[in-house]
Amino acid sequence: MHDSNPPTGTGPSQDEILDFLKSIAEEELELSEDQIKQMTLETRIVEGLQLDSVDQVVLITAIEEHYDFQFDFEDGERVGTLKDLVVMIRERIGCKES
Fold first, then answer.
1. At what angle do helices 53-67 and 14-27 cross, to 10 degrees?
2. Residue 28: how many CB atoms within 10 A of its CB?
3. Would the pTM count as exceeding 0.85?
4. The CA-based dihedral angle spanning residues 10, 56, 73, 92, taken in that order and rounded to the nearest 10 degrees
5. Structural domains of the chain, ranges and CATH numbers in brackets
Protein backbone atom coordinates (compact mmCIF):
# COMPACT_ATOMS: atom_id res chain seq x y z
CA MET A 1 0.00 0.00 0.00
CA HIS A 2 1.39 3.39 -1.06
CA ASP A 3 0.27 5.83 1.63
CA SER A 4 2.79 8.67 1.36
CA ASN A 5 1.74 12.25 0.72
CA PRO A 6 2.66 13.68 -2.68
CA PRO A 7 5.65 16.00 -2.64
CA THR A 8 5.03 19.70 -2.19
CA GLY A 9 4.42 21.47 -5.45
CA THR A 10 2.41 18.71 -7.13
CA GLY A 11 -0.72 20.70 -6.37
CA PRO A 12 -4.28 19.60 -5.81
CA SER A 13 -5.74 16.57 -7.56
CA GLN A 14 -8.41 16.77 -10.25
CA ASP A 15 -10.99 15.72 -7.66
CA GLU A 16 -9.89 18.43 -5.22
CA ILE A 17 -10.17 21.09 -7.92
CA LEU A 18 -13.57 19.73 -9.01
CA ASP A 19 -14.73 19.90 -5.38
CA PHE A 20 -13.55 23.52 -5.24
CA LEU A 21 -15.47 24.29 -8.45
CA LYS A 22 -18.57 22.68 -6.94
CA SER A 23 -18.23 24.89 -3.86
CA ILE A 24 -18.06 27.98 -6.10
CA ALA A 25 -21.14 26.72 -7.97
CA GLU A 26 -23.03 26.41 -4.71
CA GLU A 27 -21.84 29.53 -2.90
CA GLU A 28 -21.20 32.06 -5.67
CA LEU A 29 -23.26 30.87 -8.64
CA GLU A 30 -26.17 29.61 -6.55
CA LEU A 31 -26.67 26.47 -8.61
CA SER A 32 -29.19 23.96 -7.30
CA GLU A 33 -28.17 20.89 -5.36
CA ASP A 34 -29.19 18.73 -8.34
CA GLN A 35 -27.05 20.78 -10.74
CA ILE A 36 -24.06 20.45 -8.41
CA LYS A 37 -24.52 16.68 -8.03
CA GLN A 38 -24.49 16.36 -11.83
CA MET A 39 -21.17 18.23 -12.19
CA THR A 40 -18.51 15.88 -13.57
CA LEU A 41 -15.29 16.43 -15.46
CA GLU A 42 -17.27 15.93 -18.70
CA THR A 43 -19.78 18.71 -17.88
CA ARG A 44 -19.71 21.54 -20.43
CA ILE A 45 -19.09 24.76 -18.54
CA VAL A 46 -21.42 27.20 -20.25
CA GLU A 47 -24.12 24.85 -21.56
CA GLY A 48 -24.01 22.24 -18.80
CA LEU A 49 -23.92 24.70 -15.93
CA GLN A 50 -26.07 27.25 -17.77
CA LEU A 51 -23.76 30.13 -16.93
CA ASP A 52 -24.44 33.59 -18.27
CA SER A 53 -21.62 36.07 -18.84
CA VAL A 54 -21.80 37.44 -15.28
CA ASP A 55 -21.61 33.93 -13.81
CA GLN A 56 -18.62 33.17 -16.02
CA VAL A 57 -16.81 36.25 -14.68
CA VAL A 58 -17.65 35.24 -11.10
CA LEU A 59 -16.28 31.73 -11.74
CA ILE A 60 -13.07 33.01 -13.34
CA THR A 61 -12.50 35.58 -10.60
CA ALA A 62 -13.01 33.02 -7.83
CA ILE A 63 -10.52 30.64 -9.47
CA GLU A 64 -7.95 33.38 -10.00
CA GLU A 65 -8.21 34.55 -6.39
CA HIS A 66 -8.10 31.05 -4.91
CA TYR A 67 -5.22 29.72 -7.00
CA ASP A 68 -3.37 33.05 -7.37
CA PHE A 69 -2.95 33.29 -11.14
CA GLN A 70 -4.55 35.21 -14.01
CA PHE A 71 -6.30 33.67 -16.97
CA ASP A 72 -5.23 34.88 -20.41
CA PHE A 73 -7.77 35.95 -23.02
CA GLU A 74 -6.86 32.93 -25.17
CA ASP A 75 -7.62 30.53 -22.30
CA GLY A 76 -11.33 30.79 -23.02
CA GLU A 77 -10.79 29.10 -26.37
CA ARG A 78 -9.12 26.09 -24.70
CA VAL A 79 -11.84 25.47 -22.13
CA GLY A 80 -15.09 23.73 -22.96
CA THR A 81 -15.57 21.23 -20.14
CA LEU A 82 -14.81 21.19 -16.44
CA LYS A 83 -11.96 18.77 -17.22
CA ASP A 84 -10.42 21.34 -19.58
CA LEU A 85 -10.65 23.90 -16.78
CA VAL A 86 -9.20 21.53 -14.18
CA VAL A 87 -6.27 20.64 -16.47
CA MET A 88 -5.59 24.32 -17.11
CA ILE A 89 -5.66 25.14 -13.38
CA ARG A 90 -3.24 22.29 -12.67
CA GLU A 91 -0.91 23.50 -15.43
CA ARG A 92 -0.94 27.05 -14.10
CA ILE A 93 -0.34 26.21 -10.45
CA GLY A 94 2.07 23.39 -11.25
CA CYS A 95 4.37 25.79 -13.08
CA LYS A 96 4.52 28.29 -10.22
CA GLU A 97 7.73 28.65 -8.29
CA SER A 98 7.36 28.06 -4.55
1. 130
2. 13
3. no
4. 0
5. 14-93 (1.10.1200.10)
